[in-house]
Protein 1
Amino acid sequence: MAQITSVTSESLQAQVRRLLPSQQGFGEDLQASNVITPVIDLTSTAEGSVLPQNLQTAIDTSTSFELLSLTGTTTIITTTGFWRLFGTITHKAATVGVQSNIILNDGTTDNTVYQILTDSDTSTDDPSTAITFDLVVFVNSGNSVKINANNNNQNICISYRQIADINGNLTNPAGFTFE
């Protein structure tokens, strides 16, 4: 037989007031029942985020690729939203002062968000330095993402894919649809 018991926990009542502001004036205690009631959480489906994060950011046919192996700066993204950037930066051995950058530009100012710098001499017998990266960046209206190499002794291999629009609506892999 079902039993109903009053719950007098101030912390639980405070949480109800925070989550349900319209209930702040409700003067009765919380109640608990010994009846098991199944709860089905449809929150992720309602938000459109049923696909696990690692699958939602998967490489697909919309993934773009750039290789920068010469001195200079290349703009790779100008579309707003959340972007996954991943790849490898390689610096050749025995080269001092090699600098590779991933840059967020706000329309006027370059802001380096990721940098690899070879700041000491290495023997010519040493292999090249290769660093992998996997970043998520937000590109606002008027912003862009650039890659920059300061000399010919490096390669920046970067792949990138939009994973959400500017409002945070997830972009599923190309061709994927829920059943």
Protein 2
Amino acid sequence: MPNHFHLLLTPSEENTLEKAVQFVKGGFSHRVHKELGFVGEIWQTSFEDRRVRELSDYQGFAEYMHQNPVRSGLASKPEDYPYGSASGRFQLDEIPQRLKPTAKAISTQA
């Protein structure tokens, strides 16, 4: 997206969500200033967070993010947007273990 991005982020036990976002914003800003010579602010001062409580939440957020470039007219389908996770160009982390269905949950759905 030209003016924003979405991120599904699972903070570690040592780092809060705020600290993780600070690392992302700080690292990106440092590289843009150093490598591109960009002068000025890049980020808004805060961020918007949504808690992912279960697998269906995760899947819904991922689908929303995949469709974002399509809705914006940047691609005809999610896989065509080269900067998105649906493109297959990036190595993605696995779904957090706490969101994966357990064998017991799967057997009760059958």
Protein 3
Amino acid sequence: MKSLYIASVAHLALAALSEFAGEQDVVHEFDKLPDAQKEGLVAGVNMLIADPNAGADARHNAWMEKMLADGWKFSKKRDDAAKTHPRLVPFDSLPKKEVAKETLLHAIVRTMASGEQQSAAVTKTAPAAAGTVPVKYIGKKDEHKDNLYGTGLEWKAGQVHHVPPAAAAKMLAHTDTYAQDGVAVAGVAESNTPAKDAAPQKLPVPLPNLDGMTAQELVNFAQQHYGEKLPDDMSKPDMEAKVLSLVQLHGR
């Protein structure tokens, strides 16, 4: 999957998030962005793809390092002539909406880029039908049966089943019950049990796997999970971006 496509999908989701937050003059079309902004977004996507261990703060840290090296300094007011900028602060000190945007971008890149490696992840579990998604049960029960999404599958703790994409997308939205096997979510430990003395963390909500979902399935997903009615004339990429932003804003 090309980084340009991932960047365009990520921008749609970020635009939807900005609009929801009440920002004005939001540009939804990726092609209408200034060249510098498009290039910066694609470069950030490439960086996250190249470094699987990069966290949600990686893009901001790289930008800040370059700005400081070029002589910029922190100030509450941006002044290009004086080379001052209000966002030259550690990632955790950024405004909450900026942290949310970077977290969303990071989750989108991780989810979409991992789709290209999914076939390799499937071989770690068991032979499966083409196009299915390896879903692992991570809930608290010793045994669990799916009675909500039409698969009828039964899991034991930690067991993996290969699930059709449409059902998997809905399951993976419930991050306390299911996880996509073989695909690590940045910032989330393998174990469900936090370290005894570990401080609680704010973790990004993993995005559902949208591969294979039709436009109607996206409409149903938004309606069933969030009570959100998507417009009839909305394009499928815009639907995907809207669903991604709903997951990040409201969780499962």
